[in-house]
Structures are given as structure tokens and as C-alpha cells.
Amino acid sequence: MARWGMVIDLDRCTGCAACEVACKSENNIAPVSAGEADMGRATSWMKVMAQVEGEFPDTTMHFYPRPCMHCDNPPCIRVCPVQATYINDEGVVGQIYSRCIGCRYCANACPYMVKYFNWYGPEWAQSERNHLNPDVSVRPAGVIEKCTFCHHRLQKAREDARAEERELREEDYQPACADICPTGAIVFGDLDDPSHRVYSLKEDPRALRIMEDLGTQPKVYYLRPRE
Amino acid sequence: MRQSVKEKLARMSTDEQILLRPLVETSRGFYVVTALLAAITLWGMIAYYLQVTYGLGRTGLNRPEYWGIYIICFVFFIGISHAGTLISAILRVSKAEWRRSITRSAELITVLVIGFGAIQPIIDLGRPDRVLNVLLHAQLRSPLLWDVTSIGLYFISCTIYLYIPMLPDLAIIRDSGIKSPRLYRFLAAGYRDTPAQRARLERVIGVLSIIVIPIAVSVHTVIGWIFAMTLRPMWHSTIFGPYFVMGAIYSGIAAILVAMVVLRRAFGLQQYFKDIHFDYLGRLLLLFSLLWFYFTFAEYLTAFYGGEPGEMRAFWSKLTGPFAIPFWTMVLGCFIIPLSLMSRRSMRTPRGTLIAGIAVMIGMWLERFNIVVPTSVNPRWEIESIGRYLPSWVELSIMAATFSGFILLYMLATKFIPIVSIWEIKEGREHSVREVADRVAEYLPENA
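ok -> C-alpha cells follow
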């Protein structure tokens, strides 16, 4: 059984935010007005976070692309009263939009703040409506949504591989963010499969996971920038 | 009041005359207040309608401030509910004779306030239409589900605990004929106050008052656990269960005191809510103000001493940061005012306890605010956020409607049931005085 995960090389990340845009477009994430965004109601399953170090003018800036960590021990699924959030056999943490009651307990329980709430129904400009991704369901008002590791792409890749009567290859299934990353900073694959790049990258001496000490066992690894 | 009713009332005992008068006589002021409260409640319902049709975007909530006014009110109201049941049950079990005139009004607060508290998380839901998923897809590891179970059980047991000790009074009203006989024949459920029935009644009350105590304790423990079970700074604390139970009882005592002062004034019950009652409840309030300080101090010292960066952000945001005003107002309301007033005998009067009671209620509401909001806006992982929470008019209207709805139903209830238990007062006069004398004699050595 695959155990999907991600390794992000912070040395390679330029902070271009292409992953953020690709994710929004792939997953039908509705835009919000500037005022709502200022209130903290914008949704970004993948978010490039910037961290400034040092005192002006001697500052350096680091970027952290932050998807859902797809924890092996996710604090969000324990607290959900209706089993709307779950972890599947391959370690992907998902959300059942049609069951979620919108209590936002999981959003509070997640230390990585990756669960997003739909404060109202999604709205798109008329010109954008024809470009929505038919493979991803649109979320109604009042439910939680989150990064799925573009799980719909896996289903498609599996079907293709089966039709061609071959094994699933690493390049067959890549989430939109990893697919688009121009510097190859985001590497995605099966953490337990030695033929996948993430298998050895996660053992790199620079590898770390965010808030590992909480015992959440995230499946997203970061390669610390070299000094 | 109709002439026939007046005659019927005149034939009854003094206790009955005073305590049943509010059921048949309604002042103009009562109608004015009722209309005002009904208007506020209606306004809140309109606000809720807007929230349901548009979404929770109508509130001031945001990321990371996921929980706000509704959850604060949920904790606050369920806290108030510990007024009645717990206090009346403890006083019954411990045979505190001074309880007789205050149990009914306290138990009524409990039952109504649980209802208004329990709807708060539903108002807070993004999809209230799916609330039954909580039963259909119950996930037993979620503290929210423990809460649903515990509050459900609490509501049922408190309603029974309010109703059963009311039976003899309902029978008195039925037999007096001052109110609709059909309604009270139904409510009194064939109670005739025969010695056998009375004995059974007292046995049931005895059992109930023991059962409701652990249920009441479990309710606020579990509410504390909702927060404590997450890994968030200043929520993830083992003390939260007992801390919440203590706070709940504290705010409950304050609520009883305020209700008693109002009832005493409105219905002329000076003979039933006497100075001694305010003195005793004032002492209880004093004890809890000290307990409150002890728990709060223990909680904050532990967080401070550990000095974890995540905890410290939430900690300092309360003590000196943007939440300093609600924090220190809470200390004033929950500790300084009640302590300085209630430690003086001369202040344990209706007026003094009213001031202290209101201060404690405001302080306890702010305590829940200071638990929910500062931690919400200071998540362990710092993210870009506005770092504050301004409730919208929709949230404030719904909160106002919750308060007014509760007071409204409480007022209406006083038109259907005597707010002081008639039979328990009567029993006190006829039996307990002798019983207590015998009991005290029993404590003493017999070789006089």
C-alpha cells in the first residue's frame, strides 16, 4: 500500500507562488473580495508563507510552501463529531463535504491551520465558470475544505495505468503544486517505495517536519536551507 | 382578577395566597417587559435567518478565529444551568433546611438555560440542516459527541427533577380551580397527595437529587474538555474539567441571586427570600470567588512558568496585550468585587448580593471570552491574520435574543407555576422544625 507524501526543498523555493495558483485552479477554489481576504477568509489549500529573518537592512527571507501535512496521526479526525474528516489507507486525509456539519472543531484542532471554512457559497466571475475543473466537486457554504493531495488525479492515473496494463509510475500521479513547481522544489511520491525520489529525500540530513514534537507524524517533509 | 377567582384565593392559606397570586394577577409592567423581550427575541431570529441564508460570513468570525460569541454563550449558559440542579440537589442531599424557598426558582433557571445554551453550538454550525448527522454518523472519539450525550442526559434529568417536585403544587392549583382545570388535571398527573403518594414522591426526589449531581458535573467537565483535548496553547490543560465545573457553579450561584432579588421585588416575596437566604448564598459566592482565584492562578502560573513560546503569546495577549481589558475586567468581576463585597456581613443583603451577582455574571462571561478568543487568534503556528475578533451585529443580536428569550420564558413560566414550592414550605412548617430539633438532640450526649 502506498503512503503518499511530499518533500519540499526550501533551498529551491523562490516564493513564486505558482503552486498556490495551480492549486486554486485545479481544485476550484473560489476567489474572495479584497475586504473578505483582509478579514482572513481567503482559502489557500497550498499557501506560500514568507518568513523574514534578521534586522533591516540585513534581512533574509525564507519561503515555506504549506499544504496539508497529511499527518499519519491527524488531530483533526479525532475531534470530528460526524466522521466527515478521515484518513484513507494510503494516508491521505480527506473531507466529506456532504457530511460535514461545519462545527469547525477540526480547524481549531489542526496545529498547521490548513482547514478552511466556507463562510458563504462560492462565487466565480462569469468568464471563469467554463474553466472549473470537472473532476473536483465545488464546496457549498458552511463546510470545511482542505488539501487532498489532488486525490482525483490518483484515481485518474490508476485508471490509465490499469487500461495500459502496467504499474503506476511516480510521474503518473503528481498533485498540481508539484506538477507546476518551476524549480522542482516540491517532490511528491510514495514515501515507502524505494524507487520514488521522496523515499531517499526524506532521509536527507536537512529533512525536518513541522512541529514534529506534537506527535502528529506529518507526511510533508522540508529540506532546511543550507546556510 | 375575576371575582370568582378572588374568592377562591381568599379561602386558601396565606402561603398559597401569596405564592399563587402571580398566577392569576398580572401587572401592566409585566406586559410591557414581555413585549420588549419578545421584540428583542424576534429581532435575533431575523438576524439568524440572515445568517442561515447567507452563511457564517455574516458573523465577525474568520481564520483563525473560528469560534466566537456563540461558543462563548454556549459555555456561559450551560454554566449558569449549574445554578439550579446542582445547588438544589446538594442542598437537598445535605438536608439544608433553608433551601425550601429557593429550589424551584433555581431549578427553573436550569431547565430553561440548558435549552438556550444547547442551541448555541447549533446556531454556530455552518450547516445546521445537517445537525442530525451527529446521531447518524456519531464519531465517539469526538469530545463534541460526549457533549451531545452529556447535555442531552442533563436536560432530560433536570426537566424530570424540576417536574417531579412540582407535582404537589400542580395538584394544589388543580384542586383550587383558579386556573384552567383541564391543563392542571393533565399536569398534575393524578397526584392526590395521599400518604403513599407523598412517600413515593420523596423517595423519587431523594434518588433524583443524587443522580443529577454526577450528571451536572460531567456536563461542564466535558465542555472544558472540548478545549482541553486540542493541542492549542492555553487550552491543552488538565485543569480545564474541574476549572469549568467550578466556574459553572460560581456563575450559577450569581444567577440565582440575581433572579431572587428580581422575583422578591416583582412578586413581593420578602417573606420567602429572606435576608438569611441572601446571607447564606452570599457566603457561598464568597467561597467560590476564592476558589475561582485559586484555579485561575494555578492555570496561569503553570502556563507562565513553562514559558513555551506558543503559550506565552496567548498568555501575554491576555495580561498586557490586546485582551488586557477583558482580562482585568474579568479579574475585577470574578474576584475583586465579589470578594470585597461578600466578605462583609453588611453587604450580604439583597442589594449587595445583586451587585456582586451581576459582577460575577459579567466576569464569568468574560472568562469564557478570555478562554475562547485569545487562544483562537494566537495559534501555535503563527499565520497571517487580523489578530482580533469583532463580533458582527448578527452575532450580537442573536446573543441579545438568547438572553431576552431566556428571561421571557422564565417570566411566562411564573404565570403557570408557583416560583416558590408551596408544599415544601408547608412541609417545613409542619414537620421539619420538629425533625431538625430531634436531629440536633440526637447529636448531643444523652447523659444530661
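Chain A touches chain B through 41 residues (CB under 8 Å).
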